[in-house]
Amino acid sequence: MAEKEPIGVIGVGWVGLCTAACFAELGHHVYARDIVSERVDALSRGQVPMHEPGLSELVGGNAERLHFTTDMGEVLDNASLLFCCVDTPPTYSGDADLSRVEAVIADLGASEGHAIVMKSTVPVGTGRSIVRRFPNVGYVSNPEFLKEGSAIKDFMSPDRVVIGADDGSQGFADRVEALYSTLDGARVRTDVASAEMVKLASNAFLATKISFINEIANVSEELGADVSEVARGMGLDDRIGPKFLQAGIGYGGSCFPKDVSALKQLAGNTGYHFQLLTAVIEVNELQKRRTIGKLQKHLGSLVGKEITLLGVAFKPDTDDVREATSLVLSARLQGEGANVRVYDPVASEGAREMLGGATIADSVEEALDGADGAVLVTEWAEFAELDWSAMRERMNVPLIVDGRNFLDGPSLVEAGFSYEGIGR
Ligand code: UGA
């Protein structure tokens, strides 16, 4: 059997490590470089520094093909397709911060025979600007569409693989396409700018879908409809589809808020006012804050009230707290004078500073003891499995605001709770 093409991965954060581990699983030798030596050392010992189902097993099972290093030279000597997986956080202006991408390009210099394969989410136009400055280096855009919590599955069973290349890099693009040859899913071969736009537009569209259903939820509350029923009825139209119509207390995470804002700013920089995205962002911000009103409806002033946040992570099955709704709620509730306690199965310790003065509980029971109300922020399975009748006995006021429409509302009401969902 022909030897599989070795690849390089630059930046071994969540995207980089998932990419490296999956390509190693597909039989490639992967030379993965990071500038943080502690991370490289830990990974070389098989220690995975993040919570992602199945990732540790892949890293452990493919140890002989995974080479972690801090040395860019080692990567360049062994691989010519270099997957750039560094992060592109938002700047104060809402534009993406490309300094880490720039540092990678600077490290590469003008090395002939290599191609950057961009997995990091970058503004449309980034690829062409890099090619103008480094004409000797090949450039392929290959955006990632991985969801935290199901990244390995998303990589191995993609809906589509998008590969963007301009003249001069088509040969490299063919080699990138070949890396995915054993995986299902449509192939989209296009130019670099369009590939960059597919990524931003996909995230912006999904965020729009969420803000749309959240507005339908808010109007449904006023008019007596149930948004879950509405979403079910809408989703059966296959032009609409059932996914991402789950109303709640807003989207978070390291991608949607950043990418929606980046696309809006990108449009703005060209003089185009992307009105729809402005509304999507504003609806999401207001959605988080509506929780306070739901608590006040039952409790009046929140001064001195003990409020529990169930869940800190931006979604279940991850310890990621970036742009998590819990952080906004913790600060807002404390701003209203409430005492906040939080519980999350994995994410609270890492968020201690961001949670301000909130008390971190070690168990749900401890978090609910004497509480005047609880907000379900993250739909961790263990919250649905709780003995809620027993929890009711622990609480001072049996009030639940179910921010993800995750719990069985009618059973909670039967058990003596006041229950507030979203849009029902
Ligand atoms: C998202 C995209 O789904 C991926 O395709 C993309 O690759 C990734 O961003 C990225 O750009 O790297 P992720 O941030 O892991 O993935 O999270 P999602 O599962 O998409 O959820 C995002 C947020 O939307 C969460 O806060 C979730 O609670 C919220 N959400 C999702 C809703 O409020 N309602 C829904 O119906 C779905």
Please, could you describe this protein's structure?
The chain is of the alpha/beta class and 424 residues long. The chain has helices spanning 14-25, 37-44, 55-61, 72-78, 99-108, 126-133, 151-156, 170-179, 192-223, 227-235, 256-269, 275-299, 325-335, 364-368, 381-384, 388-394, 409-414; strands at 7-10, 30-33, 66-69, 81-84, 115-118, 138-141, 160-164, 186-190, 306-310, 339-343, 359-360, 373-376, 399-402, 418-420. Helix 9 packs across helix 11 (256-269) and helix 12 (275-299) packs across helix 13. The mean pLDDT is 95. It binds uridine-5'-diphosphate-glucuronic acid. Uridine-5'-diphosphate-glucuronic acid binds next to helix 9 and helix 11.
Order of strands, widest sheet = 3-2-1-4-5-6
Q: Could you tell me the number of beta strands? A: 14
The Rg value, from CA coordinates, equals 23 Å
Q: Report the mean per-residue pLDDT as an integer.
A: 95
Poorly predicted regions are none
In terms of topology, how is this protein built?
Blueprint: E1 7-10, H1 14-25, E2 30-33, H2 37-44, H3 55-61, E3 66-69, H4 72-78, E4 81-84, H5 99-108, E5 115-118, H6 126-133, E6 138-141, H7 151-156, E7 160-164, H8 170-179, E8 186-190, H9 192-223, H10 227-235, H11 256-269, H12 275-299, E9 306-310, H13 325-335, E10 339-343, E11 359-360, H14 364-368, E12 373-376, H15 381-384, H16 388-394, E13 399-402, H17 409-414, E14 418-420
Parallel strand pairs: 1-2, 1-4, 2-3, 4-5, 5-6, 7-8, 9-10, 9-12, 10-11, 12-13, 13-14
Helix pairs in contact: 1-3, 9-11, 9-12, 11-12, 12-13
Uridine-5'-diphosphate-glucuronic acid is lined by residues 121, 144-148, 203, 206, 210, 244-246, 248, 251-253, 255-256, 259, 314-315.
